[in-house]
Amino acid sequence: MTINNSIDISEQLDRILPTIQKPGRYTGGELNQVVKDWEQIKTRVALIFPDIYDLGMSNLGLAILYDILNNKPDLLAERAFSPWTDMEDAMRNANLPMFSLETRHPLSDFDILGFSFPYETLYTNALNILDLAQIPMFTSERNSFHPLVIAGGHAAFNPEPMHAFMDAFVIGEGEEVILEIVNAYQDWKESGSSRVYLLESLSNIWGVYVPSLYQAKYNYDGTLSNVEKLVDTAPLPIIKRILPQLPPPVTRFVVPYIDVVHNRLPVEIMRGCTRGCRFCHAGMISRPVRERSVDEVISAIEQAQSLTGYEEVGLLSLSSSDYTHILDLVGKIGRKFNKQHLAVSLPSLRIESFSVELMDALNKSKRGGFTLAPEAATERMREIINKPLSDEQLLDTARAIFDRGWTKIKLYFMIGHPSETIEDVIAISDLCKAVLSEGKQRVGNRAQVTAGVSTFIPKPHTPFQWVPCDTFEQINEKQGLLKRTLRGKGLKLNWNAPEDTMLEAWLSRGDRRLAHVVLEAWKRGARFDAWKEHFRYDIWLESFQAAGLNPAFYTHRQRPIDETFPWDHIDSTVRKKFLTEDYLWSQNGKTRVDCRERCFACGILPTFTEQRRNNPGDVWKCPEVKSKRLPKKELFTKVNAPE
Ligand code: SF4
Questions:
Q1: Which residue from 87, 288, 457, 643 has the fewest beta carbons nearer than 10 Å?
Q2: Residue 622 Cβ contacting ligand 1 at under 6 Å
Q3: How would you classify the pairing of strands 208-209 and 290-291?
Q4: From ligand 1's centre to the CA of 622, what distance in Å?
Q5: What is the 8-class DSSP label of residue 241?
Q6: Share of the chain above pLDDT 90, in %
């Protein structure tokens, strides 16, 4: 039986849902969900997070786009998430297509499907959703009757491994561009033109990459020669989208019935980071730093709390203690929401006593764990990664934490940083023991130190994009050493499996040929690759073999400084020249201060001169632009010039 409408889907769901785990993942109907009259709406968008509901509902990007689209009278946005394996089996047995939560329409009935890719290990889930939705997997196989399939998120800064499956990618911030994409879609629908026309018009929007309008050429040694455009009007490079000024935060969040990863109000206080940690993908691609005002944040919390009833607010950013007005903000929240007992969480704090004072002000009674991320355990290594901090400063912070009554400290490290020696690894154990010893002197045997040790992946668009990733053997040796030395009462070690690191490294550094591998892996049963219990490393190795590719080529090669990367045509606006210089600086242990203290001309300002000039003052953390000098390079074509 073919099931292709919301009534049949609802009937089947009534039958299936009592037989599967957590039916609340698939019912919709939550507080603040938006249901519009399907027949009255001109353009319908499905926003898809390709993992389960429990994770996707905590994704701020999805909530922002849901709000923006549903605020427009002629648009609707509905949500869809990956079905967990039991639900997938039930859906396939019942021939039930992938559907939206709000109105249970099949995804194939939507005009636009927007996938969210905050990280790369969601790719096989995205293919699985397209398959369950009975939509052709390849962009080349879709015609005017199929939905437009687009994707965005941090992983889209190297879109190439998914180039064959997505019609277009949003590079950068989605708040404005999503509406421009919808407008282009509506114009195309009215024009009755071919799908190629739609794709070409999308490519003229600032921040949109249409991979089918380009081709990649390779050298004999397998490295990329260049990416060429196939139509004259397609931009090259594709410049990331930014918002010159952050819009007011979303306040109407859909409130899940079931437990999700973060049961709290997420309020983004600042975007971007000025610290320049050399391993940090997010820090590089999200420049420039733009802040929201204290009043704007407070009024958003007030409104959002009344609309959702949440008892905790997360003040989100890449480095919350760097927000200029953090003390003022926290003080005002404390006074204003005192009666509601609103808890405040501040993820991503710097290692400094100021962070401890801040947490102290927030959590007078709650004294759970305190998290710090030194990332490396020796001063030498912290200089190489540009997170300079002395051991003494770190121990000072640890003392301040224990002195204020916390008993548990979590320390995040990475192994595999460039030029790492075995002494740098042993130092992780030594430093944890030194912190524990400080704790024992202050809180006795209640002191606990947990080391979370992941493996460094040289991410695209960072100063370390040239360096190789540790091999399986190197990772095993280093982890073995830590398992032997980092033990004893009060010490705990968590680590990432080397297989997980390899997958993330392949997918984040891959070129267009990786699309074969992703497809093969999905065909062989890869799903939920970010989940330990489902990830099948053997499938991925077989898939590389089937595609005739060597996985080590992508992960374990030291790249020559002049190598063309598969992501070079995607312009993060931090120039490659700057990244190269920063990489060379790292080899000499040369550090950069926070770029709020001194601008290093990373490339942001020549690209976004006009945007900075039109937003004077300290909303941006880059220097002001007052001169009337023209931007150094022609940024946008007439069609896509930002207003
Ligand atoms: S332009 Fe200067 S201040 Fe702005 S992000 Fe780049 S280095 Fe930092």
A1: 643
A2: yes
A3: unpaired
A4: 5
A5: B
A6: 85
The arithmetic mean of pLDDT across residues 424-449, rounded, is 96
Enumerate long-range contacts of 436-439, CB under 8 Å, 24 or more apart: 436/490, 436/491, 438/395, 438/398, 438/399, 438/402, 439/398, 439/402, 439/407, 439/409, 439/490
Cβ atoms of 372 and 354 within 8 Å: the answer is no
Q: Is 435 helix (H, G, I), strand (E, B) or coil?
A: helix
Is 604 close to ligand 1, i.e. is its CB under 6 Å away?
Answer: yes
β-sheet with 312-316: strand ranges across: 265-268, 312-316, 343-345
Bridge partners, 218 (sequence order): 224
CA–centroid distance, 263 to ligand 1, in Å, is: 34
Nearest CA to ligand 1 atom 5: 288
CA 193, CA 186: separation in Å to the nearest integer? 11
Render pLDDT for 542-558 as a digit per residue (tens, 0 to 9): 999 999 999 999 999 99
Q: Is 273 in the pocket of ligand 1 (CB under 6 A)?
A: no
Q: How far is the CA of 272 from the centre of ligand 1 (A)?
A: 10
Ligand 1 atom with the shortest distance to the CA of 602: 6
Q: What is the mean pLDDT of residues 570-588?
A: 96
Average pLDDT, the chain: 93
Instruction: Judge contact between 139 and 175, C-beta under 8 A.
Output: no
Burial profile 174-186: b = 16 or more Cβ within 10 angstroms, e = fewer:
bbbbbbbbbebbe
The residues, ordered by sequence, that sit 6+ positions from 461 with a Cβ below 8 Å of its Cβ are: 157, 158, 281, 284, 285, 567, 570, 572, 574, 579
Distance between Cα 241 and ligand 1 center (Å): 16
Torsion of CA 510, 514, 517, 519, to 10 degrees: 120
pTM: 0.95
Distance from the CA of 204 to the center of ligand 1, in angstroms?
Answer: 27
Q: By three-state DSSP, how is residue 216 classified?
A: strand
- Output the pLDDT for position 238: 98
User: Shortest CA distance to 65 belongs to which of 52, 75, 55?
Assistant: 75
- The closest-lying atom of ligand 1 relative to the alpha carbon of residue 288 is 5
Task: Give dist(CA 339, CA 616) in Å, integer.
Answer: 37
What does DSSP assign to residue 172? B
- 8 A C-beta contact, residue 350 and residue 388: no
Please report which confidence band the pLDDT of residue 4 belongs to, taking 50, 70 and 90 as the band edges: confident
8 Å CB contact between 255 and 308: yes
The values of phi and psi at residue 151, to 5°, are -150, 155
pLDDT tens sequence across 67-92:
999 999 999 999 999 999 999 999 99
Assign 638 a pLDDT band (cuts: 50, 70, 90): very low
- Cβ of 416 below 6 Å from ligand 1: no
